[in-house]
Each structure stands twice: as C-alpha cells, then as structure tokens.
Amino acid sequence: MHKSTTEAPSKISRILAHLLTGASINRFEAEDLGDHCLNSTISILANRLGLPLLRYWEKVPNRWGKPCRVIRYSLPETAHYEARAVMAHLNRTEY
Q1: Rounded distance between C-alpha atoms, residue 39 and residue 18, angstroms
Q2: Is residue 4 in some structural domain?
C-alpha cells in the first residue's frame, strides 16, 4: 500500500499518492503538498514514468480573487495498478 500524502518523501511521490486516492489536483492545490511547479511533476509522472494522466482546463480564483485558467490533473482508475507499481519504484529510489 502507498504512503499517505503527508508521509511520502518526494514531491513526485506525494502528488502520486494524492492522485491514487482518487482525488484530482491543480497547481494551487499542489502548494499544500509542497509542490511549487506541478506541471514539471506531472511531466515526470506522464513522460518519464508512463502514467496516463487526465488533464482538463478550469477557472479558479487566483490569490487576488481574479479568475485564472489552470489545468486540473487526475489519474484514471484504470491506471491505479500501474501507478501503485510506480509508487513502489519511487519508494525504493528517491526520484
């Protein structure tokens, strides 16, 4: 079983642990998990580690309350088995 989002050692494994709960995330929400550059983390998960992440645009308020467009990322349930294998790899090797 994967570590919780607060116990995972690297930002990549924290984001993946979050996605494995069935939750989605955008760049502002990722700040709470210690990720200040979510698009780079998503790129590693998708392009280097081969996970099929879903993306869709949404409008959210920025820190001044003005709307801005960001991408919300999620992991399809059909990819959870593969993602757990990636998590096991990440837990063995600090990425």
Answers
A1: 15
A2: no
Q: Using alpha carbons, list the distances in angstroms from residue 47 to 50, 59, 65, 75.
A: 5, 25, 33, 14
User: What are the pLDDT tens digits along the chain (95 aa)?
Assistant: 344 445 557 899 999 999 999 999 999 999 999 999 999 999 999 999 999 999 999 999 988 999 999 999 999 999 999 999 999 998 887 65
pTM check: above 0.70? yes
State the SS3 of the chain: CCCCCCCCCCHHHHHHHHHHCCCCECHHHHHHHCCCCHHHHHHHHHHHCCCCCEEEEEEEECCCCCEEEEEEEECCHHHHHHHHHHHHHHHHCCC
Residue identified by tokens 């998990």 is 33
By residue range, what is the domain housing residue 80?
Answer: 11-92
Domain membership flag for residue 5: no
